[in-house]
Design goal:
The chain is of the alpha+beta class and about 350 residues long. The protein has two domains: about 90 residues; about 240 residues, BirA Bifunctional Protein, domain 2. It has twelve helices and ten strands. Strands 1, 4, 5, 6, 7, 8, 9 and 10 form an eight-stranded mixed β-sheet that branches. Strands 2-3 form a two-stranded antiparallel ribbon. The chain binds phenylalanine (PHE). Phenylalanine binds next to strand 9 and strand 10.
């Protein structure tokens, strides 16, 4: 009997002394587990006489119940304490300032590139690329600029020092060489746009020596000027986010298209800014035309089988028009105040369905 009293008081003391849940579990196993001391006492019942068992059975059972109850009670206390400690650590200081918004912005030119890609992407165009450093053949000759033709000079080309025996490489003066690279590497039908940097030796309020263009090229069977007009009018409406645009296609000259046309749209001046679509004045926004048969032939495409149209637009100017930026020069000045004002949140990707701007 004294052994059971000792075991009980030791067990209860150990339970009280357990300072965390894992220590408590160790005590539980040592007392109530299969090989535990209390379980050992229970086993002694088997060797007792019937009278002894009648006396001891209820007592030992009661002891086991008390020890088990003490474990449960301690467990509740320890669990509550653990929760309190967690809550105490998990403080939220309401007096701290909120997290600051990220300050970087997407440059308007990049935003407009994304918008243009979203619109033409919706019409089934993919994006093509070419190098900024071009050879004379891709930038001029393949595009039907005859040798020594004055059109080469109107481009104010930057030339590299020529390698021995080679024509000098150039900084591409337009994105049109990407037309050539695409037709040389892909079979029609072709429907691409080519966004990129272009370079001309020019520098004033509306011209910078590096600027941005997006080229477009469609080569399919039975393509005609109506497709060109429909495609570009749809583009202008989507880009300026207006329901109707009055447009005209004014005859022009480019060596690589025939016929060629510049596209003008009507606009209204509202204070300092400009609204595209309707109004009393015309503004030129892009160059276009039907791909010249010589250009198709230079790329191994038979002009009797395939026709196409091409267009090229100045992205910097489109961005100025759409977002009311009066001067081109701050584009390249890395002025944080200007970027915060005119820049875009980089994670808001433009889409035709979700909204462009
Ligand atoms: N490459 C021409 C330019 O830079 C634009 C253009 C592209 C015109 C395609 C017609 C067709 O002025």
């Amino acid at each position: 009997m004294s052994e059971t009293t000792t075991i009980e008081s030791e067990a209860l003391a150990a339970i009280e002394a357990a300072t965390d849940l894992s220590a408590l579990d160790t005590v539980r196993v040592a007392e109530l587990g299969k090989k535990g001391r209390v379980s050992g006492l229970m086993k002694t019942l088997g060797q007792m006489s019937a009278e002894e068992r009648q006396d001891m059975g209820p007592k030992l059972n009661a002891l086991k119940t008390r020890v088990a109850a003490a474990v449960e009670a301690r467990k509740t206390v320890l669990e509550d304490a653990a929760l309190e400690a967690d809550l105490a650590n998990d403080v939220l200081d309401m007096t701290l300032p909120p997290r600051r918004e990220p300050t970087g912005t997407l440059h308007p030119v990049m935003q407009v590139f994304e918008e243009i890609a979203a619109i033409f992407g919706d019409m089934g165009f993919t994006v093509a690329e070419g190098p900024d450093i071009e050879d004379d053949w891709h930038n001029f000759t393949a595009l039907n600029f005859p040798e020594g033709h004055p059109a080469r000079e109107t481009h104010d080309t930057f030339f590299f020092h020529p390698q021995q025996g080679d024509k000098p490489k150039v900084l591409r003066t337009h994105t049109s060489p990407v037309q050539i690279r695409t037709m040389m590497s892909q079979k029609p039908p072709i429907r691409i746009i080519a966004p990129g940097r272009v370079y001309r030796n020019d520098w004033d309020a509306t011209h910078t020596p590096m600027f941005h263009q997006v080229e477009g090229l469609v080569i399919e069977k039975n393509i005609h000027m109506g497709h060109l007009k429909g495609c570009l009018i749809d583009f202008v409406k989507a880009f300026f986010e207006v329901d109707s645009v009055e447009a005209r296609f004014r005859p022009h000259f480019f060596p690589f298209t025939e016929p060629s046309a510049e596209m003008d749209v009507k606009y209204t001046k509202v204070g300092e800014s400009i609204e595209i679509g309707e109004g009393d004045a015309w503004m030129e926004i892009l160059g276009s035309g039907m791909v010249h048969p010589n250009v198709l032939r230079n790329c191994g495409i038979d002009p009797d089988d395939y026709q196409g149209f091409a267009f090229g637009m100045g992205v910097d100017r489109l961005a100025m028009l759409k977002y009311g930026m009066p001067d081109l020069r701050p584009y390249f000045e890395a002025d944080a105040k200007w970027s915060r004002h005119y820049g875009f949140k980089p994670w808001l990707t433009p889409s035709v369905s979700g909204g462009l701007s």
